[in-house]
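Entry for the shared binder. Reason: the reviewer on the internal report wants the predicted structure included alongside the sequence.
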Amino acid sequence: MTTIDNNPAGLAELLRAERLTAVVDIGANPTDGYPPYYHMLQQRLCTVIGFEPQPAELAALIARKGDLETYLPYAVGDGSPGMLNVCQAPGMSSLLTPDPKALDCFPFYAHFGTVHRQVPVETRTLDSMTEIKALDYLKIDVQGSELSIFRNGRSLLANAICVQTEVSFVQLYQNQPGFGEIDSALRALGFIPHMIANVEKRMILPIQNANDRLAHINQILEGDMVYVRDFTRGDRMSVEQLKHLALVAHYVYGSFDLAGNCIYHLMNKGVLPNDSVSRYLKLIPVAAA
């Protein structure tokens, strides 16, 4: 976890958003440790509605949740019946079917992607979720169903300010949308790429390191991309959108420049005092200033 500033609530006190930042987490099972919004949640700066259709993983989330978190058992998709393929590695379980030819190209992946059982599920669209009253920040990790979710969540995403999504550079599932399709869909919704939060690389068989299943040379498989509401058109964002984008940029990603840009736009709208950027600079590490 990155140390954000010496006064954890400093930016929140400066901005004074009307409500806590609304986080929606689709595929909430934290297979890679803490979720990216963990720091905000610990500081009680956000609420979380998470979706996890796998019963054991859902039970674990509910058992350790706090009062600002809600977890639901729905599979999010296009609203049609689906089949959840439960794989050897829980993080590879998907509504899509693993592609054996692709998996066979990478060490251990044929094993990780072995389907142990199939569970019929009724999917719900993002826009049909009455439990979601607001969506500012979407974190999504659903192993291939991202594009379907975006297409059926346009109403909620119209007001969102940030999306962290897994993108695939090599399709490990049958009919899996690639990076280009995800990028085009999010740009059409008014988002632009901000950063690559994580990149997964693997060796290509038959070359491998039998002692290190994570060993790699150059081949990229997938990554977590962060998209933000287009700040080059910051004047088109509402006051609350700018405030929540600043909060997420600051507390989740340490993107102090993006947060400062949002503060600048808020100053131009007459919402914040004219010295707000200089006040903000005092909150962040010297290196960022």
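Summary line for the report: Residues 47 and 124 are 21 Å apart (CA to CA).
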